[in-house]
Amino acid sequence: MGTPVRGVLTVARPTDPGDDVTAVLHGRPDAPAAGSGHTLLVADAVEQGRRGTASWVERELALGSKVYYKGWLPEGQQHWLSGPAGPRGARDAFASGQLEFLDFPTLVERSGATSAGVLAVYQDEVERAFDDLWPTVAMTQESPELPMADDAHLVSEYATWESGFDVLTGEWPVRMLCQLSVPAESERAMWETVAVHHRDLVDGVWSAAEDHGRWGPRGDLDAHVSRRFGAAVHGALRAAREREGCSDLHVDLAAVDFMDVSCAEILMLAARSAPAEQHIVLHNGPRFLRRLFDAVGRPPSVRESEDPR
Predict the structure, then answer these.
(1) What is the pTM of this model?
(2) CA distance 158 to 152
(3) What structural domains does the chain harbor?
């Protein structure tokens, strides 16, 4: 239990394969292959998440990255990573040491279940990889199933170590993919996870990213994803309040293809519930969105940017 497992892994708990939905984790079109990043992959079904993760791991192996994978490893069957659903080249990567696996119970044991301990484990892995002359490091972990609904302190610890991941990817050529399996997590855990990862997340037909001080949702925003969209808006507003100086949230709507009434209402309600000194500033809003916001009731704290860009 004390060392990463290589070769054929024993698997995780049996889970319902869920809906047969094809999900591909697309690379950011404006991001260089060698860049760093900290992304959340959201999946409504287990198989959907595995397909996206397998695509990501396969790409990282092809790029020559050292890949660390953390997940559930009870006794039993073969882990999906080294089975037919896993990424191409995974078995060879396990054998060569390019791909390493660490199970969650061992991670808890090593870290003491504290944010400082978790970050120390990740920092050690990164340093070890670069000492071994790997050019880049890729790290991913399965949905952790943390009992956040019953433990406010755990929510705080989780947010702290995720912020530490931002620091890690900011200082080193490290790409990190956090996985969120919606069926495996409580409503509180889902909300907090998406809120913390609002800067870079992929969730089926929509995604969000932060660029040059603007938070930008992309794709189709409908009732099915409205709860998670609301969590991301909440996280973006919270992060804006933590900045020094102006706490306004600048939202770039140029890449929104569709938004229904439920998501429009969530955005307007979030603006109403924000502190009086905080505003939501909309950039590049298509005409249909401006009409929609007016229809659901645009509060004074939501304003259009005068910047033509």
Answers:
(1) 0.86
(2) 10
(3) 1-11+34-197 (3.40.50), 205-309 (3.30.750.24)
Tokens, residue 180: 């969120």
What are the b/e assignments for 249-270, b being 16+ CB within 10 Å? bbbbbeebeebeebbbbbbbeb
Both tokens of 218, joined, read: 């992309």
Residue 208, SS3?
strand
Average pLDDT, the chain: 86
Strand partners, 38: 176
**What residues contact 3, with CB distance under 8 A and at least 6 apart?**
none
Would you say the C-alpha torsion 238, 242, 243, 245 has a positive or negative sign? Answer: positive
How many other CB atoms are there within 10 angstroms of residue 99's CB atom?
27
- Structure confidence by residue, pLDDT tens digits, 154-211: 788 888 989 999 999 999 999 999 999 999 999 999 999 999 999 999 999 999 999 9
Strand, helix or coil for residue 192? helix
- Half-sphere exposure of residue 165, counting CA atoms within 13 Å on the CB side? 25
Taking CB atoms within 8 Å and a gap of at least 24, the contacts of 75-80 are 75/10, 76/10, 76/11, 77/10, 77/11, 77/14, 78/8, 78/9, 78/10, 78/11, 79/8, 79/9, 79/10, 79/11, 79/12, 80/11, 80/12, 80/50
| Structure tokens belonging to residue 116 | 């400082």
In this structure, what token pair is assigned to residue 65? 């990255």
Host H or E run for residue 62: helix 46-62
- With CA atoms as reference, report the closest residue to 184 among 236, 148, 232: 148
Interatomic CA distance for residues 185 and 163, integer angstroms: 20
DSSP secondary-structure letter at 149?
Answer: G
Average pLDDT over residues 28-49: 77
Residue with token string 């007016």: 294
Q: How far apart are CA 142 and CA 52, in angstroms?
A: 12
Q: Give, rounded to a whole angstrom, the gap between the first and last alpha carbons of the chain.
A: 54
Query: Is the predicted pLDDT of residue 24 greater than 70, yes or no?
Result: no
- pLDDT, one tens digit per residue, over 167-181 is 999 999 999 999 999
Query: What is the DSSP secondary structure assignment for residue 308, as one 8-state letter?
Result: -
Encoded tokens for 36: 């760093």
